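To assess whether the prediction recovers the assembly geometry, we first specified each molecular entity separately, as shown.
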Amino acid sequence: MIALLKPSALSSHQPISYFMLAIAYGVLLLTLTEELMIWVIILGLCAIVVRTVSFEKSSHLPNARTVNLLAVLSLFALTWFGFSIGLLNSMINLLAIAFALKLMLLDSKRDFHLLFCTSLFLIGCGFISALSVIAWLGYLGVLLFLLLSLAYYHGPVTPLKSSAKFVGTLVIQSIPIAALLFLVMPQLPPLWQMPTSKSQQTGLSDTVTPGDIASLAKSSELAFTATFPSASAVPEPQQRYWRALVMEDFNGKTWSIGQKRKQAERQLATMRRTPPLLLLANTAENEESDESGISETKSYEMIVEPTKQNWLFALELSAPNNGKNNITVNAQFDYTLRTSTPLMSKKSFYFDYLPNAPVTNPVGEFERQLNSLLPATSNQETRQWVSSLKQANPTPRGLASAIMNYFKQQGFTYTLEPNAMPVDPIDRFIFEEKAGFCAHYASAMTFALRAGGVPARMVTGYQGGEQLDDNVLQVRQYDAHAWVEALIDDTWVRYDPTSMVAPSRLQYGIEQALAEFGEKRTDGLLGDLREGALFTTLQNWMRQMDYQWSKWILGFDANKQKDLLEDLLGQITTKKMTAVFLATLSIVGVILLVYFFPIQRQSTLPKYHRIYLNALSAIEKHSGVERQYLSPREYLNKVSSHLNENTQKILSEMTLLFIESSYSREGIGDDKAKVTLKMKHHNRALKKSLRQ
Amino acid sequence: MFDEAGNPQQLTLSDNAMRLDIEEILQALGEKIIGKQHQLKLALTCLLSNGHLLIEDLPGMGKTTLSHALSQVFGLQYSRIQFTSDLLPSDMLGVNIFHTGEADTDKQFTFRHGPIFSQVVLADELNRASPKTQSALLEAMEERQVSIDGTTHSLPSPFFVIATQNPSSQSGTYPLPESQLDRFFMRISLGYPEWDAEKAMLKQSNASTALSQILDEGSLTALQKSVDDVHASDALINYILMLVNESRSNSAYPNPLSPRASRALLQGAKAWAFISNKAFATPDDVQAVFTAITAHRLTSSSQHQGTGFDNSTYARESAGETLSKKLLESIDPLAA
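The predicted structure of the complete assembly is given in tokenized form:
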């Protein structure tokens, strides 16, 4: 019986642990649907099915050759698709594929550990894109489940419940340590750059074909949260213009950021000219230093959801407070903001609000020309209409108000579902459809102004925001908006033609504006359900929780850490910081030591015993054969073949001496000193022999 | 200084005659049960420790052959009880029968001894009997006497029970509770023989011949006494205590080892040392007998009773063996 036992004899727990691992993997797959390609998910699910089918008998598992073939095929497929999905996603896919293939072969302790570690990596990958409380709780659950499977795998034959208790105790013990490390350990910047993902970017796009923002309006995803120092510092609804992109190039259908603008920005940057926004901020700061206390009320914090883009938005106008920002925000000459790296995860930014600051034209004639360009033909009807308007209203201001009035008086309506306008869209919009949303109005007005000789451009961003708290605004994707800036007397003046049609859009948001025109932002049963009181309460509650989470946990960066430590310790010096870090480390170390240090019996081992143990550890180190629990004689038999003849002889003499002294009837007797001396002598000879 | 087996030669037993007996016995048993030297030594250890043996095996593995061979070489009286679900305690222990003779003096109750009144009792398929019968046997094993109608009858000495259980086809059986499993000194499984061993067995011509008696009754008692004389040092006893305490303090072991188990470990180690021709027991001896003595005591009641193997994967360890090995591996004998 004993001889028949395989060395890796299966304990009855393994199939269950494997199954638990497979379940955890399944959950991870489903949370990573955005990153993973569909065929990878299918492969993963197949692996789980294979593992489930072979729950009892491992004979159903595919053999290694089949899996190898699958691996080669997957590798080809991944290489093929890898170019289109970017490096980061390829790597995540690779992890998921590797996991699936190994799961089919899983049959040893080593494999199990490997898969366990891989699933930890998969959880890490999940956190790249999902940072909400819900995601965090979900991944925590998966992690606990994984730990449970590990404990169950290694645990002896006990019910699952006691394994769960064990894992629970360990996790609870680790919480204070984790909290301490989170609060006190220095927050180092990442050691490597996150490769840019090519997957779908979220939020505003950098081109506007009237119709794009409508698709955003269907989304109630959070765009960002802004926290003001006090309730009175929150701007009025009509003033909540969050400026993001400036579109200056129009090809007859689509607005985009012009190539010339991009070149100009690059040139200006190399010339080291200071953008006007920063100049404004500097002057504002100087003024404030005279009237102290105002700067407090004007700065605010924004927690921005990942956009995977470089550009950023802020209240019109706001200067970035780069002293506090983790990612540097650069101001452009068109008063837009850009981050130095794409926003791959939730980040907070600090801004100084400069209400009523003018948007000037810092580069003179260049901007004027750039914003007067029109496609040669197309939309002729509009051009004629504008020239007649221009005769009645020769001044730029007059022309602009005339256009605004036209929208107001001609029975235009606000809708998110306008008809498609493929040919001469502006003509059709102004004279036939007379129904559309912000992008249509902004696009039409910009075109009309340019046709009338007034330089104009389209600005996109967000307008509005729901008040989560007295001093907290949340802006969602459906708050996306577009408006117009016209260059009048070298200052860019904001016109919002949408407000002429649907004034409530500014005051109460998009839902109200649509309601006035008998439309709903969302349709169907779900839409109705969303209007229920319970749903609203729940939603508010969730939003509140998510906000607090973002603010306190995700937003806990090096600055907040510094503030916290300063509150606790006063002025921070290098010495103090070093002391705090060292103290924390040693506290954690002591906690761990106390917990893990085996409670050693008072060492009553006689001297010859200790010398013998010392000799054994030297042998272990030399031969690489561990003793573990083996008795002296068994270890001697096992290790002999790894030793030279002389060492063998000495070790066997020592072993014999030890056995006689420890276990025989005579025991060590009266010759305690003699035995010790003999053992010492042997030990010396042994060490010498090992050195040879 | 060491012989091939790594045993120190200087530490041999003084009594050479006894040593020869043991060797002869092992050789004789080895001829009957080929290639199972370790299990034979364990069975002998059990007998020398005056403990009862539980053999768990599939049919046809040589359970009966082993018990028969043991009784033959020691020259002991042997009986076999086949346990079935309708076996009554009285079928096993015996009954008082009323004599109807001519003379008045003949008219009295006399006790008819049951098959249990033997020195070696093979209780075949013990788990097929009803709990009532099982507990009657187990009580007799513990007390080494039987009480019927108020009269106490002593069982013969030495008294050695070899019980067998069939691990497969568990339907219609009454698994032994832990408290009763504890009464068995050790549990062993013979298992399938190795290729060469089975080949030798098939080529054997004199398979059915009975073994000749090697020892008489008195020598077995003498051997048992010699086992008690084997020395167990403090270091060794500490090692045993560390093992049993680990099973009690670690929640991984649902059924901790009882003091009866630690006594059995010490006794078993001594007997094993004796069989291995040593005057004192060392941790090797504890380790050699550890699984056989503890595996059936460590199993939890929630586990599939007794065994974890089925016909297809016979080589699989039982849950108890896994636990026992884990326990053994968690304690370093040199820490004592």
